């Protein structure tokens, strides 16, 4: 092959062994051979044409030729299903043609046209091609860098950014009331009674301070120091409100300050009006505060701008627990400004009340104990309580009212203090004998519910999303505060100490009893056979990023799924009925259960409590696929309980999905439509004449569907419907699983009663 700019022609002849000849068909020069996918042939061709293959084959069909991972696909049925790339990233293969030798077909020839970059195209890369994004352009260009995503999570993040500004006013002692309204047009308004954004001209920008914080990245009053507007704040980078402005179709800001009301309007980050002001009525001269109303931009949030009332309500309740001095209201309005629903949150008890709310459906061993400590400008609030009927801990951490989902030094300090204090008091009281080992942290914290909230003047968060606190000085202060709190309380309440230690020692013994089962899980981390008791039918792909597993209900559905799947990247694991409810069981029982063992081994979940490593998970898409009836819903809930309690990080990594099979098949003549809900069914029926002969089939079980039907509606990645499950509010989810799957019946009945208005009698499966 001649290598120079322009087009280069390459031709290669490869001998075909007798065992491979059946792969080819007789072709004329005007035809392409029909060649099926064979990894052996792919590797041989790859060596012949200086092409490398990846370790797995991309699931591509002939009518869906795409460029995956930037790798070119040779346009033949042989290579359409194989993931190929040139060894040189500067080469681009196009116009392949195939010719097979007539007769015995011992040789196959492939002619390729290879396009090489010219020297001119390389030289064309100059200073003029360097882009400089100014103002809020970087936000609109790469919104995910600032809000995480442009899906529902990123959409709600806009509300959190505005809300955090109001909470900062609360923490500074200048606000006591926050009102959040969800409007019918999709807009949201957040109003507080704080000091109001300053309105004077900023000396650096020459604009008003309002316009500066709304249009200039890294502008705000939260950078610390003597000139800062806040001693404690969740904002570090000064980008929150300006990001909301950039990603909003329109934004209106209203400021009440110094006896005046100021207003300004923006469109996609650009001011469309000047900052105007007018005097307040005499009776409102003392009024102060800020109101920000914004409508998210559908050009950015292409999947929709519908806010979830329950998600916002959960965050507001959380903030009200963390800031006992504030009252927060949430209202959903119609287009006529009428209330659809509303809630108001105020918790004078603070974190102690938060812990009581988390444990409302558990057997509590004692009343919540709490402490507030301030040292070196850092404020620490801790509340904790042990429960006798819980086998896991519930620990929530906050820094400047920001939820630290990945923990940090404040939680490290708390955990160390609890473990050390219980061991010290246990040996002092002779409950833990001299010959006995110390309790580990996991055993000491079994059944513990704890909330740790710190206020730090200069917090060190990891990234803009602030999921982990890094200040080393915080650990020492929290450690000392918790040790003092727990020691003082338990020394005064020896009966509580004895109960907690008895529970911890029992947990230690249960762990020892489960050790053999755990070792079994470790030994089987690599499956040697697809014929497991769980009847796993594995896929041929070994890359977990490109692999997915369907956990299906029963052998009947499993049989259809196995026949209908694409075995290259789809695995099937049928279950034998309902799995164990691990909400009510300790580790020893969990590890001895065969169905649970099959799930742990098949998914590659490792051992509960050990550090989570996504690379060890065998499939990065775990899809729960159950029947559309009460039993199916129950099995789905049991599986979600298992995944949440056993390896919660799967949800945080975005690995858990629920498959949505169709409910109806509508046939009219040779036409067939699959409908996923009643609304879609009615829409399809409206397209037919009123006197049309229509056959409607209601699917209740996956086993009722033929393999081809299951593939077309539920398994095919191009046509199926999946719901990805993530955890927005860990406290809410934890409490909901306790109610649904715990021992107490009354809270479950109350939940059913309160949720009854969401159901339609026609949809009940009776």
UniProtKB/TrEMBL annotation:
Kindly state which keywords UniProt assigns to this record, in alphabetical order.
Answer: ATP-binding, DNA-binding, Isomerase, Magnesium, Metal-binding, Nucleotide-binding, Topoisomerase, Transit peptide
Documented EC number(s): 5.6.2.2
- What cofactor does this chain's UniProt record say it requires? Ca(2+); Mg(2+); Mn(2+)
**Cleaved signal peptide residues:** none
Name the GO terms of the biological process aspect.
DNA topological change
The subunit structure is: Made up of two chains. The A chain is responsible for DNA breakage and rejoining; the B chain catalyzes ATP hydrolysis.
Cited function: A type II topoisomerase that negatively supercoils closed circular double-stranded DNA in an ATP-dependent manner.
Q: What is this protein called?
A: DNA gyrase subunit B
Q: What is the species listed in this Swiss-Prot or TrEMBL entry?
A: Riccia sorocarpa
């Amino acid at each position: 092959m001649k290598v120079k700019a322009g087009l280069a022609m390459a031709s290669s002849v490869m001998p075909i062994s007798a065992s491979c000849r059946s792969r080819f068909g007789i072709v004329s020069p005007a035809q392409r051979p029909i060649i099926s996918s064979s990894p052996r042939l792919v590797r041989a061709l790859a060596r012949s044409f200086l092409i490398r293959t990846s370790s797995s084959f991309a699931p591509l069909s002939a009518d869906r030729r795409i460029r995956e991972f930037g790798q070119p696909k040779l346009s033949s049925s042989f290579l359409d299903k194989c993931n190929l790339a040139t060894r040189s990233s500067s080469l681009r293969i196009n116009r392949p043609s195939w010719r097979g030798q007539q007769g015995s077909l011992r040789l196959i020839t492939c002619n390729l046209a290879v396009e090489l970059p010219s020297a001119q195209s390389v030289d064309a890369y100059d200073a003029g091609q360097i882009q400089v994004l100014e103002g809020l352009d970087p936000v609109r260009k790469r919104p995910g860098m600032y809000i995480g995503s442009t899906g529902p999570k990123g959409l709600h993040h806009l509300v959190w950014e505005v809300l955090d500004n109001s909470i900062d006013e609360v923490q500074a002692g200048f606000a006591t009331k926050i009102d959040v309204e969800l409007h019918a047009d999709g807009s949201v308004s957040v109003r507080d009674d704080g000091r109001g954004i300053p309105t004077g001209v900023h000396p650096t920008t020459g604009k008003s301070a309002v316009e500066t914080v709304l249009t200039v990245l890294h502008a705000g009053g939260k950078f610390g120091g003597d000139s800062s507007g806040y001693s404690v704040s969740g904002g570090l980078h000064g980008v929150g409100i300006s990001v909301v402005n950039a990603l909003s179709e329109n934004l209106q800001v209203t400021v009440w300050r110094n006896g005046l009301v100021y207003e300004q309007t923006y469109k996609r980050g650009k001011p469309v009006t000047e900052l105007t002001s007018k005097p307040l009525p005499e009776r409102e001269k003392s009024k102060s505060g800020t109101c920000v109303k914004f409508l998210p931009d559908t050009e950015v949030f292409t999947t929709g701008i519908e806010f979830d009332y329950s998600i916002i309500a959960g965050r507001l309740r959380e903030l009200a627990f963390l800031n006992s001095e504030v009252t927060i209201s949430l209202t959903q309005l119609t287009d006529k400004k009428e209330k659809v629903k509303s809630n108001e949150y105020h918790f004078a008890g603070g974190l102690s009340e938060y812990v009581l709310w988390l444990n409302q459906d558990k057997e509590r061993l004692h009343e919540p104990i709490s402490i507030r400590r301030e040292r070196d400008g850092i404020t620490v609030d801790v509340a904790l309580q042990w429960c006798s009927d819980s086998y896991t801990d519930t620990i929530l951490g906050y820094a400047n009212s920001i939820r630290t989902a990945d923990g940090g030094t404040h939680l490290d300090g708390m955990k160390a203090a609890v473990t050390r204090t219980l061991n010290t008091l246990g040996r002092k009281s002779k409950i833990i004998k001299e010959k006995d080992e110390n309790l580990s942290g996991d055993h000491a914290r079994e059944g513990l519910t704890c909330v740790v909230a710190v206020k730090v003047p200069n917090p060190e968060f990891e990234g803009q999303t602030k999921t982990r606190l890094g200040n080393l000085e915080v650990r020492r202060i929290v450690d000392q505060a918790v040790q003092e709190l727990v020691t003082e309380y338990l020394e005064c309440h020896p009966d509580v100490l004895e109960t907690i230690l008895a529970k911890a020692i029992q947990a230690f013994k249960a762990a020892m009893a489960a050790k053999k089962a755990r070792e079994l899980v470790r030994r089987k981390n690599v499956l040697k056979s697809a014929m497991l008791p769980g009847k796993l039918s594995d896929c041929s792909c070994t890359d977990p990023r490109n692999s997915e597993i369907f956990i299906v209900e029963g052998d009947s559905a499993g049989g259809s799924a196995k026949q209908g799947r694409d075995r290259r990247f789809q695995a099937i694991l049928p279950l034998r009925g309902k799995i164990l409810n691990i909400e009510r069981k300790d580790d020893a029982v969990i590890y001895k259960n065969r169905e649970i063992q099959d799930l742990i081994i098949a998914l590659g979940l490792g051992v509960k409590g050990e550090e989570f490593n996504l690379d060890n998970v065998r499939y990065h898409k775990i899809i729960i696929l159950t029947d559309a009836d009460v039993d199916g819903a129950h099995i789905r809930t049991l599986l979600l309980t298992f995944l949440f309690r056993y390896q919660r990080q799967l949800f945080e990594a975005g690995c858990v999905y629920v498959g949505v099979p169709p409910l109806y098949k509508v046939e009219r003549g040779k036409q067939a439509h699959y409908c996923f809900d009643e609304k879609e069914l009615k829409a399809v029926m409206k397209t037919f004449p009123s006197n049309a002969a229509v056959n409607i089939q209601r699917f209740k079980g996956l086993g009722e569907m033929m393999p081809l039907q299951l593939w077309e509606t539920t398994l095919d990645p191009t046509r199926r419907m999946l719901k990805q499950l993530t955890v927005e509010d860990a406290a809410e989810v934890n409490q909901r699983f306790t109610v649904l799957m715990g021992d107490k019946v009354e809270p479950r009945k109350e939940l059913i009663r309160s949720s009854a208005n969401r159901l339609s009698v026609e949809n009940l499966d009776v």
